[in-house]
Design brief:
Elements (H helix, E strand, L loop, with lengths): L3 E4 L5 H12 L3 E6 L3 H11 L2 E4 L5 H15 L4 E4 L14 H19 L3 H7 L2 E6 L2 H5 L5 H21 L4 E8 L5 H4 L3 H9 L9 H11 L11 E4 L7
Parallel strand pairs: 1-2, 1-4, 2-3, 4-5, 5-6, 6-7
Helix pairs in contact: 1-10, 3-4, 4-7
C-alpha cells in the first residue's frame, strides 16, 4: 500500500505542484482547498488527485475534512501544510481584520492541519510533516508584518514538533521559498514584480516544481535524519 499524503492548498500554485510531484513519486494524495471549486475541479480532471474543500482556519472543519480523507484513502502518513494567504498593508494601515485573517489561515491553520493527524502518526511510529514557510518569515518584509509573523511562527512550530516527534519516527521540516511564479506573486503589479526579480541573484522567479522537489525529498525514507530543518529555496536572495 502506498503512503497517503495530504497537501493543504493543494489545488493551485505551489501546493498543486507538490501534490502532483507526490503522486508521481508513488504516494496516494489528497489535496485540500478553500473555495475555488472551478480550480479544484480542473486540477482533479488534469491529475486524478482527489480534492477536499475545507477552511484550514477552522479547527472543526479541518478535523472533519481530515477524517473524510482518512476514511477515503487511509491514515495520513505525510502532511504538507501549504495553504496560505497574504493581506498586505504597511503596518500603520494594517487592520485588525487583515492581521487576524493571515494569522488564522497561515499560523493557526498549521496547528489545525497537523494536530488531528499527529496522534495517528505517533501511534504508527511514522510521519512526515512539511510546512511551507517563506523567505519573508526569515527576513521580514515591508507591508507584511502579519504574513512575516506567521511564516516565522511556522519555523518555531517545526523546530518544536521535530523534538516531540523524533522518538516516534516523525520528522517536521520547513521550506522557505523565495519568490515563486504563482498567482500570489503574479498578482502583484508588474513594476513591483520586476523590482522583486532585480533583487534575486538568480535573475528569475522560482518555479513551483522546484519547491515540490524539496518536499518529495523531505518526505522520503532517505530524509529520516533531517528533522527540524529549514530548506531555503530562493535563488540566493537571502541567507540565514
Ligand atoms: N508564491 C510565492 O512566491 C511564495 C513564496 C513563499 C511562500 N509561499 C507560500 O507557499 C504557499 C502556497 O502559495 P501559492 O503562491 O501557491 O498560493 P496560491 O497560488 O494563492 O494558492 C493557494 C492555495 O491555498 C488554498 N487556500 C488558501 N486559503 C485557504 C484556507 N483558508 N483553507 C484551505 N485552503 C486555502 C487555495 O485554495 P482556493 O483555490 O480554494 O482559494 C489554493 O489552493 C503559501 O503558504 C505561501 O505563503 C509562496
Amino acid at each position: 500500500m502506498s503512503k497517503v499524503a495530504l497537501v493543504t492548498g493543494g489545488s493551485r500554485g505551489i501546493g498543486a505542484a507538490i501534490a502532483t510531484a507526490l503522486k508521481s513519486a508513488g504516494y496516494t494524495v489528497a489535496a485540500n482547498y478553500a473555495g475555488n471549486d472551478d480550480a479544484a475541479a480542473k486540477f482533479t480532471a488534469e491529475t486524478g488527485i482527489k480534492t477536499y474543500k475545507w477552511n484550514v482556519a477552522d479547527y472543526d472543519a479541518s478535523k472533519a475534512g481530515i477524517a473524510q480523507v482518512e476514511a477515503d484513502l487511509g491514515p495520513i502518513d505525510i502532511v504538507v501544510a501549504n495553504a496560505g494567504i497574504t493581506r498586505d498593508a504597511p503596518f500603520h494601515k494594517m487592520t485588525p481584520e487583515q492581521w487576524h485573517q493571515v494569522i488564522d489561515t497561515n499560523l493557526t491553520g498549521v496547528f489545525n492541519t497537523v494536530h488531528p493527524i499527529w496522534p495517528g502518526m505517533r501511534e504508527r511510529k511514522f510521519g512526515r510533516v512539511v510546512v511551507i514557510s517563506s523567505i519573508n518569515g526569515q527576513k521580514g518584509q515591508f507591508a507584511q508584518v502579519n504574513y512575516a509573523a506567521t511564516k516565522a511562527g511556522d519555523l518555531g512550530i517545526v523546530k518544536s514538533l521535530a523534538q516531540e516527534g523524533a522518538r516516534a519516527g516523525i520528522t517536521a521540516n520547513a521550506i522557505c521559498p523565495g519568490y515563486i511564479a504563482t498567482e500570489m506573486v503574479m498578482a502583484v503589479p508588474e513594476k513591483v514584480r520586476d523590482s522583486i526579480i532585480a533583487g534575486i541573484p538568480a535573475g528569475r522567479l522560482g518555479e513551483p516544481e522546484e519547491i515540490a522537489r524539496c518536499v518529495v525529498f523531505l518526505v522520503s525514507d532517505d530524509a529520516g535524519f533531517i528533522n527540524g530543518s529549514t530548506i531555503s529555496a530562493n535563488g540566493a536572495q537571502f541567507f540565514v
